[in-house]
Amino acid sequence: MSGRRPRVVVVGGGLAGLAAGVEAADRSAAVTLLERRPRLGGATWSFEHRGISFDNGQHVFMRCCGAYRRFLERIGSASDVRLQSRLEVPVLRPGGPTGAIRRTAGPAPLHLLASLLTYPHLSRRRRLQAIRTATALRRLDPDDAELDETTFGDWLAARGTDAVTVEALWDLIVLPTVNVRAAEASLKLAAKVFRTGLLSRADAADIGWATVPLSALHGDAARRTLQSAGAEVTTGAAVRGVRRGPGGRPVVETDGRTIEADAVVVAVPHDAAGSLLPAGTVAHQERLEELGTSPIVNVHLVYDRPVMGLAMAAGAGSDVEFVFDRTDASGLDDGRQCLTISLSAARSYIGRRSPDLVQHFEAEMARLLPAAAGARVTERIVTRERAATFLGAPGTHGLRPGAPTALPGVYLAGAWCDTGWPATMEGAVRSGVEAARLATEYAAGRPASPEPLARRPEAVAA
Question: Is the dihedral of CA 83, 85, 86, 88 positive or negative?
Fold first, then answer.
């Protein structure tokens, strides 16, 4: 390279692309990041309406999400999130007691025993059965490809779990993490969630979320970090293709220019990646669309007074899956409260009219929170991510490629790649970091062997 900094082009400015760009810059590459949209952050972004900041959807992470937390540290956003000191998820039921999924100070898996034994939304018999099921879950190996041949729901049913227990307990966890219900979720992905998040390490599932708008947390902060490292960041740049150029170097074609690179990271959704690359570049390239998509809908309600005294809660016996207090992040300081209802695997909601969704969930919130029944909603916003994640159903594993491709110097990144994780922020960041590692080694003339992400240690700072 004669002292020249190798040039790495990153296609895509979502979390995977941002993580790849930062990692490549930290490895002394000259980075060019191209994003077709006018903003960075991918599926995590914010907007303002009547002076109130809303996120497109509620995104959370866990203490075990080490790559994501290190990314926040690197871009200077670690102080803009809240991380529970100890897992506690209140579970509300209309007209019933408030339960909770919480951990004690004991070691895993005993840290959840007290919570399961006293969980009021299940009978004593169902609680004991749930404890036996959790013990069996702990024995599963998330790296076992055979687990991808069945659904989590079928596995639960084979162990005597009924629909009441699935709705009141197991779906509360698998639905927001895999973005499908237990009945459809790949057992392999469900095993990853429960083993890594809940059953192997006591503090792994402590939950964190942003205390500032997501655009500030991710896109804005990462842009500053990249630009301070000398990277070129261009939004509104539509990439038309990536191909092999003169001398075997990869070439990126955009509407306005042709960019020769030493290496390229393609960090776009799975349903876009195949069309950007020559046929045969990615394993099962012609079948990537079979990964499918699963939508997420969020209903944002601003009340004229506080109606919920919790930072977040789950719902049981209600269409409200999770609700978060976003008042501080929204910028409100006039006594109103902003609550966001998050609906995963939202195929039944994605096509419904916004006024109908608002009317329905205002009524559901009044059932769940008595104080909401007497309050007035001053602002109502519905946000939709129609293709929020790939569909984490059986058969997923074999379609998720690793970072290397058949095109020399070109690597893939994205939460849909073979990270070993469901489609999460952690998976996106892990894939971006790995792709950048491989790309910079290749660009420097030192091709590195890929390190399977699914087998990398869960190195997490305390």
Answer: negative
